[in-house]
Amino acid sequence: MYTSRQLADILFSNYYSNKDLGQNFLIDDSVIESIGKLAELDSKDENRIILEIGLGPGALTQKLLQHGHKVIGIEIDNMICNHISNIFENELNLNQLNLIEGDALKVEWPLDITDVVANIPYQISSPLLEKISKICNDGNGIKNCVFMFQEEFAKRICADNNISNRGPLWITTSLDWQITLGKKISPSSFKPQPKVESRLVKLKRRDLLNSETVLNYLNSKNLKPPSKRLIRAISAASFNQRRKKLRNSLKRQPSKLKLKHGFDPNKWENILNKSFLSMGEGFFDSRPEQLTLDDWIEFSAQIMKFQKEL
């Protein structure tokens, strides 16, 4: 067993971090422990297959393997791949660790992954979440993710109670994942030190639109669950002009809602007006950041209802 600092020292004996790849390696064992707890690595589920993205010196990799889980690592840096191959030669030979050299945003992921646990380069945070959601929507069985995000990004995806952080990212992520903020991490826990604070975040897979709570609520208003496409389209169009009231930002039909999706531009104004009226007095004067997640779901359901009726 190595400490996080020992693994980093071994790597840095013949390696310099690549700023272009956003490499900031963990050298704090207490943070590794926090990741393990948030990821529930003590779980006795023998069927867990954990994907790690960006293995760095291998401190987190070591923790994942220590708990007996099958680990698949994707690493873009050839020199780090060589380092990992030396440190975990035995685990690789026993097939407990499978190392894939490549860009995690571009390579195909194995279909049997159940968890993703990673200290990722912060510049890939948003596209990585998009890729994971697409993979899950295609039927992959990923159930849980634990990530190290930049603090600002973490607040943007968990913005329920903070109006200023609300945006399309929060809505899109919340539809697919139950979000839990973990421990705040200082720059001193990394080498080299980033210029920003970091935060652990856990994402637990869910299908919010088909949850019992949402279905019962919509049913009480004689509404059907809207499509994710619709929610994303109207929320993105609204937040693109976040200082405007909804009646103005949505006056023109969002570009992502096309005729092939059943949305006739000639009927949009009528659909919108009826939806505003159904949401109650004053709703059309709301600004996007004032809406809760429930508001977005109900409003989208009203739009879908009148789109089918008109």
Task: Report what the structure shows.
The chain has 310 residues and is α/β, with parallel strands linked by helices. The protein has 2 domains: 4-206, 3-Layer(aba) Sandwich (Rossmann fold); 212-309, rRNA adenine dimethylase, C-terminal domain (Helicase, Ruva Protein, domain 3, Orthogonal Bundle), CATH 1.10.8. Helices cover 40% and strands 16% of the residues. The chain contains 13 helices and 9 strands. It has helices spanning 4-12, 29-38, 59-66, 78-87, 89-93, 125-137, 151-157, 168-176, 212-220, 228-239, 246-249, 268-279, 293-309; strands at residues 25-26, 49-53, 70-75, 97-101, 115-119, 144-150, 177-185, 190-191, 198-205. The strands form 2 sheets. It has a 7-stranded mixed β-sheet. The chain is elongated and about 65 Å long. The mean pLDDT is 94.
The strand line-up of the biggest sheet is 4-3-2-5-6-9-7
Q: Biggest β-sheet: count, sense, barrel?
A: 7 strands, mixed
- Summed up, the domain count is 2
Gyration radius (Cα, Å) is 22 Å
CATH architecture of the largest domain: 3-Layer(aba) Sandwich
Give me the count of strands.
Answer: 9
Strand content: 15-25%
Shape: elongated
* N-to-C span: 67 Å
Output the number of helix runs.
Answer: 13
In short:
40% of the residues lie in helices and 16% in strands. With 310 residues, the chain is of the alpha/beta class.
Topology overview:
Blueprint: H1 4-12, E1 25-26, H2 29-38, E2 49-53, H3 59-66, E3 70-75, H4 78-87, H5 89-93, E4 97-101, E5 115-119, H6 125-137, E6 144-150, H7 151-157, H8 168-176, E7 177-185, E8 190-191, E9 198-205, H9 212-220, H10 228-239, H11 246-249, H12 268-279, H13 293-309
Parallel strand pairs: 2-3, 2-5, 3-4, 5-6
Antiparallel strand pairs: 1-8, 6-9, 7-9
